[in-house]
Target: Amino acid transporter transmembrane domain-containing protein
Amino acid sequence: MEERPETELISIPATPRVSTPEILTPSGQRSPRAASKEGKSWTPTSFISPRFLSPIGTPMKRVLVNMKGYLEEVGHLTKLNPQDAWLPITESRNGNAHYAAFHNLNAGVGFQALVLPVAFAYLGWSWGILSLTIAYCWQLYTLWILVQLHEAVPGKRYNRYVELAQAAFGERLGVWLALFPTVYLSAGTATALILIGGETMKLFFQIVCGPTCTSNPLTTVEWYLVFTSLSIVLSQLPNLNSIAGLSLIGAVTAITYSTMVWILSVSQQRPPSISYEPLSLSQPSASVFLAMNALGIIAFSFRGHNLALEIQSTMPSTFKHPARVPMWKGAKVAYFFIAMCLFPIAIGGFWAYGNQMPPGGILTALYAFHSHDISRGILALTFLLVVFNCLSSFQIYSMPAFDSFEAGYTSRTNRPCSIWVRSGFRVFFGFVSFFIGVALPFLSSLAGLLGGLTLPVTFAYPCFMWVLIKQPPKYSFNWYFNWILGWLGVCFSLAFSIGGIWSMVNDGLKLKFFKPS
Model:
């Protein structure tokens, strides 16, 4: 009698990791396809449960278990808006931890770091170092919150800061609370970069040309126009992932010129009659406002949280490989280097110049005190690196504005932007920022005020969002901790804004990064 052959076990062959299904976008990139319209609790493997598998024999059970692993490896069908495949932030989802590090570092280090020694001149050693350390740890915690909340609801990705605010605070209130500060941090920073980049290009030309130069130099406004034109040319890159190379250049130049500035400052002889006592005024109330403005400067040095969700949305995400993992890896690397830039600038700059630090910051002090002691080549290289960093930062901070323009266009026409329409939006945004900078050349003096107004984006709103979306147990440590941090951020925002208004009223306390000659 013939023996029956043993039952063969059927298995699904191993497949390489695949991200969410994709479609081709207008710029040739690939982006996840919108999901099917199912219930909120459905997942590709929800039908394969232990209860379902229990009556089935071993071979079939193994087949279904393998199928479950395969579906989980392929990824979850996140419910995405099909319009996202046409927009520059979510058009390409090929990002990784390296891109996240480049973008976060480019957004986190910039011209605002150069004025940190000014805050130390008003606060002194103890309060200055303590405030900077607390602010750094606080914003690192809120960044972690934003990374975790990106996919807080299964099957939903919050690709923009305003979307997450709407999910936490409601449709209308979320827009009211988050729209103004995020728009300012995007458009306002782009305008400030035009002012600073143009003025730095003028100083670079003066250093290279020298005192014996006979050519007719450009005016300050003409240098603004040169910088704007260069920024518009670079802005033609289609989406956020495509500017990863520019973000790398911005990150490298920021680290380089930050290191050069504080090393050059501490290596030179300190000015005579230097003092490290905090600057104060005769009236106690004025001294309080002065300290509030200094704390506002420290808060203003930590920016980039309005771009965290946008950066994370450029990454693929699956059940087993969620986007928060590479995002947090890149963010940790970026903020390590950010700390290596901010703390030496603040401490080294205050040590080198003390209470004689000019309102423009450490770069202005270096040019004012040591322009004749340092070789023209090193000074010119420092200013050139600042220009490169401003050009790179302009791209990443302008991307949310480009995204908003194209979102309005695609929602009305139900089709993606053509190359000409996309280019037109970016040219329009660049020149609008230029005209605002020319019409309001004192915009940089508003840094303390606007830094206070936008502080909740970094320090307050993420804490509230965590409580409202994650809903930790009421009266638990997590619940108390986030509510207290959030309301402290709101109170500090009001206090720093008042200090910024007071500093604007007093001409001697206006914050100017450079003074055009």
Summary: The longest helix spans residues 171-209. Confidence is low (pLDDT under 50) at residues 1-24, 28-55, 72-77, 507-517. Strands lie at 22-24, 30-32.
